[in-house]
Amino acid sequence: MDLTPLQEAVASARTVVAVGARTQWRIGEPVAPDAAVVRAPAGVVRHEPADMTVTVGAGTPFGDLDRVLAAAGQECPLDPADPRATVGGVLAAGLSGLRRLRLGPLRDLVLEVRVVLGDGRVVKGGGPTVKNVTGYDLPRLYVGSLGTLGVLAQVTLRCRPRPTVSRWCRAPEPPPAGTRPSAVLWDGERVQVCFEGVRADVDAQCRGLPEIDGPVLPAGAHRGRISVPPGAVRPLAASLAALRGLRWCAQLGVGTVHVATDDVPALVAAREAAHAHGGWLLCEQGAPGLPAFGRPLPNAALMRRVKDAFDPDGKFAPGRLPLAGAPAAGARA
Amino acid sequence: MLGTANATAEPLELALYARDAGVAEGHAVAVCWPATGAQLAAAVRVARAHGRPFVVRGSGTGLAGGATPLGDPVVIVTTRLDRILEVDARSRVAWVEPGVLNLDLSRAVRHLGLHYAPDPSSQQACTIGGNVGTNAGGPHCLAYGVTSAHVLAVEVVLPDGEVALLGGLAPDEPGYDLRGCFVGSEGTMGAATRIAVRLTPDPPEVATMLCAFASVEDAAATVSETIASGVLPAALEMMDAPITRAVEDFVGAGYPRDAQAVLLVEVDGLPAGVAEQAAQVEAIARAHGATAVRTAADEAERALLWKGRKSAFGAIARIAPDYYLHDAVVPRTRLVEVLGEIARIAAAHRLLVMNVFHAGDGNLHPLIVFDGREPGTWQRVRAAGTAILEACLDAGGVLTGEHGVGVEKRDLMPRLFGPDDLDAQARLRDAFDPDGAANPMKVLPRGSRCGELQRVPEGTWI
Amino acid sequence: MSGPLRLDPDGLVACVACGLCLPHCPTYRVTGREIASPRGRIAAMRAVEAGAAPADDAFVRAIDECIQCRGCEAACPSGVPFGHLVEATRAALGPVGPWWRRAAEAVALRLLAPRHTLLVAATWVLLAAQRLRLVPARLGLPRLRAASLRPLDLPAGGSPDAWLFPGCVMDAWMRDTHRAAARVIRATGAVVARPGAGADCCGALHLHTGRIALARRLAARVVRSMPGDAPVVVDSAGCGAVMKDYGRLLGTPEAGAFAARVHDFSEWLATRPPPPVARTGRTVVVQDPCHLRHVQRAHGAVRSVLRDAYEIVETDDDGLCCGAGGLYAATRPALASAVRDRKVAAIGRAAPGAVVASANPGCTMHLRAAGLDVRHPAELLAEVLDG
């Protein structure tokens, strides 16, 4: 995959922001408006079905990747809400999908990254094999870095067998121990649960439960994602239930709670509840002017040093991630 | 703070901390055994105040020299930090101190129907802290992922003596994944004092199968086709004939002594899926000429089969007194070809190489067995080892799948990474440890960064 | 290439330093120190043997702190003969420790153990001293009873179906266990006898403290005391382990043939038609004496003979040593009790307050001193024999 145009675009700009499909553009603080927009290349570079790995340009829409993998009976559970989202965008935002309960977080899917740094150099981190501890874990560092450490240009991802059956059901309560749901969503009243696997196992787990087309998540002009320790979901839910105009749905066993509302104050109140239960509320949509994170990031000084190590000139996505200290512009040659 | 009883510079004790289970030797100027996180942090600060680097180690079962003390450091041993601090069965999280033994944790939560999934072969002896350092793997990491997939948060003493909590129990901590950076950093970014790990529910159903083959090629082809067919076993291990016999001598688990290769395959999950996958594996194995396929009848038989597999490296001493064990990963589609190449290299160097490895994820462990007392053997062993690694890299592989780079593979890093890649990694490490005080001279070769100078002490050999 | 310790070079080189022994070493478990581990001790032996390090105080302490439980041997995939290496090192070092300890060991091992009548006489003196409250409780000695010291109702010599080996300390302090064992043996229909003259002591304690020559003399006397080919039943796991190794210790075919006749009590019983017992439903936690589990590897038999009468509960510590170690509990009380704390905790986790079955007198005394109710499997069975 030819990365030269991207390298040149990055090297020649003063500040840069990598853009995908802008489906999660609200994540993080707004980027300085004068940053030059760059896009990573799209396309599947290599799919090794027998090795269950796939290498793609970071600009590849998830839907395109999914079609290629589906043809080989495989999948890569990036699970963005919108299939137009690019692979690079999903990884940079770092927010895992609904099936995290069974399939794990996004960061565990990335095997190798190729990243364009500020001076146009391409840096490789990780490796193409499914197991690898050679050197420091740059792939994980880039997941959730919001484009502030360089431009993700190409990634190698781990695939898995696509389940023969994948079924969402409505249930009166969470599934009992001994079942293996891929997702359990709970909004205080009803439960939506996803079972996957071979037909007999899915049938057995779904017995007596009405099937639904797919999960319904709260809708509203302003949306956020709460992240709390999984054990704090139920006490948090009690607080959220008391908030007028707030709709929510929790991923049980994970600790993610999706919230939506039509008035910003309810989102602010939800954020306070999240803080009270040891977590965060990340703005995902709307809520103009509301800070993205709501409180200072932990270990901001150490994160600042990491940022400076990869982006000494403060070139990438300026403003996106509020870290302590000023960018050490020109500090390193 | 530690007291004189828990720190020493006595020559015999220092000598015993000159190495881990690998072959590289170094030298410690002092050794200490803190019993609390605060004592560990104090030990780091004392070392720094005296201008010394520090090396943190657990049980010393690492095979890449990751715990070898280079640069005359203070060695900080975590074996007394061995408390399981908290188990939350509902959230499936445990907080542990770094010196807790991997298997002790699984045992302690067994009654809750949970276990700690990463299961390195040394799991009875190795510590969770050491596992975090090397991002340890193990047979069951094929389906469940390596250590970094199971560590939620780490409280660390940074090399400047500051304490920080990296990661957290909430699923999406904002900002950079510092936890992800720390796991697998081989002690070069600081010292863990408390670790939150994910506990995994025991599978409702497990089938453990032993498949015997008349050739290594047949077994390797079975592995490739199993993966390609869409079966995702919980574990898929391979042993060749000499290893199988050595293991059988030790455990008597009924491993076939006449097979040229055996596969140990485990599938788990819900009953129908397990039955289907087990049948698929058996069909694939038989199609590739398996001479026998046996399924463990009960938990005791299953445990015995695994004990055999996990004792393999040690059992080698029954064949020859020394071994040199490598750890490389190749794409699973290249297994047959790479195993053939390894056999050719061994023959060319007049050495016996055996194979026991995590076949399902392509993680090879070519094992050269020899008697180091015979003159000239070590040179041939090193030459063959390097040739084997080169062959793995040429097949699109990487240097290490779970043992870590340590000091053993440090100088091979430029074979896999270009100067820019190494520079980026060095910058990341410097962000944590600008003075190079934490486990110096590990992971990255000299010159990874411009102007970097490192001294390798006399007598260090790798 | 033998060095100052005159160790078997193949045994020494067999260790590949993998560390799988570490969690099975009781002294490593409580100290966390490499020097208190099998791997560390072997590395130290190698260094001394190669002339790279002196056999200084630190080395002597490292070797002396080993309980010789041999848990590491059972865990060692490389088959390192650790027990033999430590025995040989101790023999090369000679008696070690403070003067009072060397003196006490000399009295116990050179004077009393080889002369059983003298040991029994000394036991009467000790019993009297206990009654007069002259023996400090911290020594952890069992409370002796005059009734227990009455003579064993067993014929000496002859040609029995099975010999019951009485041993030294056990026969002086825990003769009730022999009585129970004899009852159970008879209940299987076998004729049992005790050996004739010479079976004063098996030599285990001597061997473990490096007194190999004396151990050999005692062993030769034991072999002569039980002629014929009847099985030799031993109800002390520590004695049984050494007696099974007489072939190597004495290096004669006779000794080898004798060793093959040696069986632990439970091991022998498991080969017999089971005696009639009443099912009690009571819970018993099995504590595996190291020399039964790691050396004789006959601990499974304890479970099979008790299973008909009791509910067996296992501990979760992989048979880690209790810290008794023959004389160890007396000579290294601090480490021994730290090791015991772990065992007591493991027993508590398994079944709090339950009776503990132990097939070794040393373990029994050591654990009783921590307040546990410990019985020999023979006693537990004798209690429930029908009729």
Rg of chain B computed from alpha carbons, rounded to a whole number of angstroms:
22 Å
| CATH topological fold name of the largest domain in chain B | Uridine Diphospho-n-acetylenolpyruvylglucosamine Reductase, domain 3
Question: Measured on Cα atoms, how large is the radius of gyration of chain C?
Answer: 20 Å
Oligomer: heterotrimer
- Let me know the number of strands of chain B: 20
Give the biggest sheet of chain C.
Answer: 4 strands, parallel
Look at the structure and give the mean pLDDT of chain B: 92
- What separation lies between the terminal Cα atoms of chain B? 36 Å
Stretches with pLDDT under 50, minimum 5 residues of chain C = none
Instruction: Bin the strand percentage of chain B.
Output: 15-25%
Q: State the domain count of chain C.
A: 3
**Main sheet of chain B: which strands, in order across?**
15-12-14-13-18-20-16
What is the straight-line distance between the termini of chain C? 63 Å
- Helical content class of chain C: 40-55%
Question: Strand pairing plus helix content of chain B: what structural class?
Answer: alpha+beta
Number of domains of chain B: 4
Can you give the helix content of chain B as a percent range? 25-40%
Could you give the count of β-strands of chain C? 8
CATH architecture of the largest domain in chain B: 2-Layer Sandwich
> Largest beta sheet of chain B, briefly?
7 strands, antiparallel
What's the total helix number of chain C?
Answer: 22
Can you tell me about this structure?
The complex is a heterotrimer of chains A (333), B (462) and C (387). With 333 residues, chain A is an alpha+beta fold. Chain A folds into two domains: 4-161, 2-Layer Sandwich (Uridine Diphospho-n-acetylenolpyruvylglucosamine Reductase, domain 3); 165-285. Helices cover 23% and strands 25% of the residues of chain A. Chain A contains nine helices and 17 strands. Chain A has helices at 4-12, 62-71, 87-93, 100-103, 138-142, 199-206, 233-241, 264-276, 300-310, and strands spanning 16-18, 36-38, 44-48, 53-57, 74-75, 110-116, 122-126, 151-158, 160-161, 165-171, 183-186, 191-197, 211-212, 222-227, 246-251, 256-261, 280-285. An eight-stranded antiparallel sheet of chain A has the order 13-10-12-11-15-16-14-17. In chain A, strands 3-4-8-6-7 form a five-stranded antiparallel sheet. The longest helix of chain A has 13 residues, at 264-276. Mean pLDDT of chain A is 95; it is low at 328-333. In chain B, the strands form five sheets. Chain B has a seven-stranded antiparallel sheet, with helices on both faces. In chain B, strands 5-6-10-8-9 form a five-stranded antiparallel sheet. In chain B, strands 1-2-4-3 form a four-stranded mixed sheet, with helices on one face. Chain C has three domains: 9-93, Fumarate Reductase Iron-sulfur Protein, Chain B, domain 2 (Orthogonal Bundle), CATH 1.10.1060; 105-269, no CATH class; 274-383, Rossmann fold (3-Layer(aba) Sandwich). The longest helix of chain C has 18 residues, at 333-350. In chain C, the strands form two sheets. In chain C, strands 2-1-3-4 form a four-stranded parallel sheet. Chain C has 387 residues and is α/β, with parallel strands linked by helices. Chains A and B meet through strand 7, helix 5, strand 9, helix 6 and helix 9 of A and strand 9, helix 6, helix 7, helix 9 and helix 15 of B.
